[in-house]
Write a structure and sequence with these properties.
Elements: E1 23-29, H1 50-70, E2 73-80, H2 88-98, E3 107-112, H3 119-125, E4 131-138, H4 142-148, H5 157-164, E5 171-178, H6 185-197, E6 202-207, H7 215-221, H8 229-247, E7 250-253, E8 256-258, H9 266-272, E9 276-280, E10 285-288, E11 291-295, H10 299-307, E12 314-319, H11 322-334, E13 340-341, H12 342-348, H13 351-363, E14 367-370, E15 376-379, H14 381-384, H15 387-395
Parallel strand pairs: 1-2, 1-9, 2-3, 3-4, 4-5, 5-6
Antiparallel strand pairs: 6-8, 7-8, 10-11, 11-12, 13-15, 14-15
Length: about 400
């Protein structure tokens, strides 16, 4: 029987953007106790396919192991869904399958819903070295939780942190979503300051965006949510981000904050800086060199394709042109605290117009020039709020952009 193995050799040409070395590995665990109203990720609340999924994941891990032997993983990120919500015996098997791709000395992140952290699951997490635990708290207060369709019990993030610290040695992160008129920005900032003072390592804060094919988008179509919901959420998010910086949080990416530069999410930083990453599981994304892949979204299709001749369950493949890769490099690095090299930017664009844009953004307070190492163009907090507009200004100056 012929085996359709994935070809990880992605390009024979020279890439003109610098990439951090190594490979990050992302694993999608597509199971969750419930589907929240804002969620567009392909997950299942049923456990009937868990065993088949783990069988397919084991085959995919076997398939990528030769690639990782030559380019060892620098990080592992296990997301979902909610990996820790699996039954304990399935979670044990997940850890066993992934044991061969754990990075040696690198960061290992597991996403979790707070209520999934039973004694049995915490005991398993305690065995993982260099663990980073990302907690999907999502919101504060019953009104915001109801809007998001999160039916779990409202909890105190501060009490959660105080409970976890003595039970688990890990870098702890919490995710939150700023909603609309129901969101209390000042109350959230009080909680964030308490978390900072009690040693939380990391915060991710996002504005609510109504994605297609979600319960929230259906509610909007039916007129059951306010027309200005997303605009109000964006304004709350801007207010919160400014407040977090004033409290001392280190804003190293548009929506990500660490208590200091040593507590950033190294996996995500590797991806944003253009490093290679593998994606395992249904709907997972992968980029090696200039080739991008996306696995099929359906768990059933993922299991079927993986079992049929041990095929790779690719749903989409894309080869980036050099100018596309450079535009992507510009956008992802503009999101970061380190910005983008001025020399690199001028060498890739119409340099005269690009320099005019750089000077204009600096004068207006939307950006600054950081000369710590080499000159970098770095967006300020105000600039990050209009990131897309600034990036588009430079995109038009790349060759062949059709300004």
């Amino acid at each position: 029987m012929r085996t359709n193995q994935m070809n990880f050799r992605t390009d024979s040409g020279e890439t003109r953007t610098l990439r951090p070395p190594g490979t990050a590995v992302y694993v999608q665990v597509p199971f969750c106790p419930e589907r929240c109203d804002y969620c567009s990720i392909p997950v299942s609340a049923s456990r009937s396919l868990t065993g088949d999924y783990l069988d397919a994941l084991a085959r995919e891990v076997d398939r990528v192991r030769p690639f990782l032997s030559s380019r060892p993983p620098v990080s592992l990120y296990v997301g979902g869904g909610s990996p820790t919500s699996l039954p304990v015996e399935d979670f044990d098997r997940l850890l066993s399958i992934l044991s061969t791709v754990f990075p040696q000395g690198g960061e290992v992140t597991f996403e979790s819903r707070p209520e999934a952290l039973t004694k049995e699951i915490v005991d398993r997490l305690r065995t993982i070295r260099s663990l980073r635990l990302s907690l999907g708290v999502e919101s504060l207060g019953k009104a915001s939780m109801a809007l998001l369709g999160r039916r779990s019990e409202d909890l105190s993030p501060v009490l959660l942190l105080e409970d976890l610290r003595p039970r688990l040695e890990a870098s702890l992160s919490m995710d939150f979503i700023c909603t609309g008129e129901d969101f209390d920005s000042e109350g959230f900032l009080e909680v964030a300051e308490a978390l900072f003072l009690r040693g939380l390592d990391h915060l991710s804060v996002y504005p609510l965006v109504i994605e297609e094919r979600t319960v929230l988008s259906l509610r909007k179509e039916q007129g059951r949510t306010g027309e200005s919901l997303e605009e109000a959420a964006a304004e709350n998010w801007r207010r919160v981000c400014s407040g977090l910086v004033r409290q001392g949080w280190f804003r190293y990416e548009v929506s990500n904050f660490a208590r200091d530069p040593g507590r950033v999410c190294r996996h995500n930083l590797h991806v944003w800086q253009g490093g290679d990453y593998l994606g395992l599981g249904p709907g997972a994304h992968q980029k090696t060199g200039i080739v991008r892949y996306e696995n099929v979204l359906s768990i059933v299709d993922y299991v079927r394709m993986s079992g049929a001749g041990n095929r790779h369950p690719t749903g989409h493949r894309e080869v980036l042109l050099p100018e596309e890769e450079e535009i992507e490099h510009l956008y992802t690095n503009l999101r970061l605290f380190s910005g983008v090299s001025v020399r690199w930017l001028l060498s890739r664009t119409e340099s005269g117009k690009a320099q005019e844009a750089i000077d204009e953004f600096v004068r207006s307070g939307l950006a600054r020039i950081d000369s710590t190492d080499t000159e970098s163009f770095v967006l300020t907090g105000e600039g990050l709020c209009v990131l897309d507009a600034i990036a588009s200004r430079f995109f038009a100056l790349f060759p062949g952009s059709g300004e």
